DNA sequence: GATTGGATTTCGTCA
DNA sequence: TGACGAAGTCCAATC
């Protein structure tokens, strides 16, 4: 990994065209050839970048560029597309290289997966007398998160989201349309369950006869902990 | 901006819990307090990070940590949530600070906007005898990208995407449902136009009687250039 | 300030 | 390998 702090300007062309005016920035060149241009603020997203696989070519400035104070020109060309990043470096304030080695990568807990697990274990949160049929119930257009039966034996399809917006309601609607063609299941009712449900999603769901259920993740986790401790 | 290359491990807790095993990484501390942990590969996304506003506290390792070779402990706490990032630094290979100043930011050309402009100017791409009614035709749930009329005077609503997937078809479906309630327009047919259309989106569109149209951006731009040169 | 839709999205997972 | 859904998504325009 090479770290450069320099006054620079840049141009990107590929899926769009964009330019970065002259300023002091951090340039990171990774071992796989990818390049990041970071400013001293904003989020984790660089101002501009080139994803691997790509090649960095460093060359001399033209006479005209040199007259304007350019000392190096970096050209980063993507291998599989026309994406290209050109950086003009003026004053270089820092330049160092480091051996980092391979990273073992991030290990993370599930979120929606964990929520699904918890709701399956606490299916009575849907209502008294509910029973689980199965998680990831397969359909032609993909698996439904949870299929359950209510106290009267009626089928209930559950779509789970961390944040419930309009897309999730559309998704559940498609599943319901398909499931209701199955005479062994129909009629199938829908439940849209999420930690947070956006107002527009709630309106759309209600309009389509889909019940909305807000889940308290911490409470569900707490119950789960208590139950675990009992055994 | 502070740049540190160090052997480290890290834990994140907040909207999820995650851990980073011991490895050599780049740590970037930005002027706004945000912290990025980068490996020597992958994309522009850091392995882990903390977004601003947040505060970095550097403190001494506990005796137990020191025994394991930890030389510094960084705690990054988000100001408005419980998000927290803890980094244990072992050997520090590099540590430098730099003044970058404020960045003017990225200036970019439009993409979907440009595509819309080009298609409006080359509306005959939809078919012989087509005429433009208007771009951004307003409806109660938002503007339709392009409204046109075919050679027979029938209304046609166009949804434009750079990459056409199922969401775009859903969006156009909602527009068509609404537009077809207007007796002055109905019947309104739909065209789903994109530089690339995903198979599932094509299936769904076709199933709903929506025509799919793949656009050649470069060719459209080329035609535009030629036309510009004529005037 | 909340919401919505796009992104040079990136990143998994699964068929 | 391609497609699809999720993301600690981020981000800007709009209401």
UniProtKB/TrEMBL annotation, chains A, B:
Q: Where does the signal sequence lie?
A: none
The enzyme's first-digit EC class, named in words, is hydrolase
Q: Which residues form the Endonuclease NucS N-terminal PH-like domain?
A: 2-104
Q: Which GO terms fall under molecular function for this chain's record?
A: DNA binding; single-stranded DNA endodeoxyribonuclease activity
Q: What is its EC number?
A: 3.1.-.-
Q: What is its main location?
A: cytoplasm
State the similarity comment.
Answer: Belongs to the NucS endonuclease family.
Which HAMAP family does the record cross-reference, listed alphabetically? NucS
Q: What is this protein called?
A: Endonuclease NucS
- The species is Luteimicrobium xylanilyticum
Q: Which gene encodes it?
A: nucS
């Amino acid at each position: 990994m090479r770290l450069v702090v320099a006054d620079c300007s840049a141009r990107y062309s590929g899926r769009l065209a964009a330019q970065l005016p002259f300023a002091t920035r951090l340039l990171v060149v990774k071992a796989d050839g990818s390049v990041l241009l970071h400013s001293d603020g904003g989020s984790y997203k660089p101002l501009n970048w080139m994803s691997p696989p790509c090649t960095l070519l460093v060359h001399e400035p033209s006479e005209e560029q040199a007259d304007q104070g350019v000392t190096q020109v970096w050209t980063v060309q993507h291998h599989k597309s026309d994406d290209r990043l050109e950086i003009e470096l003026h004053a270089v304030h820092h330049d160092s290289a480091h051996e980092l080695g391979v990273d073992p990568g991030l290990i993370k807990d599930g979120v929606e997966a964990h929520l699904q697990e918890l709701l399956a274990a606490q299916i009575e949160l849907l209502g008294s007398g509910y029973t689980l049929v199965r998680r990831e119930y397969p359909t032609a257009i993909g698996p439904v998160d949870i299929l359950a039966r209510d106290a009267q034996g009626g089928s209930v399809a559950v779509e789970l989201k961390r944040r419930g917006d309009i897309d999730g309601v559309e998704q559940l609607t498609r599943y319901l349309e398909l499931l209701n063609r199955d005479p062994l299941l129909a009629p199938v009712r829908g439940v849209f369950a999420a930690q947070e449900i956006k107002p527009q999603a709630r309106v759309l769901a209600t309009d389509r006869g889909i019940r909305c259920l807000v889940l308290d993740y911490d409470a569900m986790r707490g119950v789960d902990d208590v139950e675990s401790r009992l055994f």
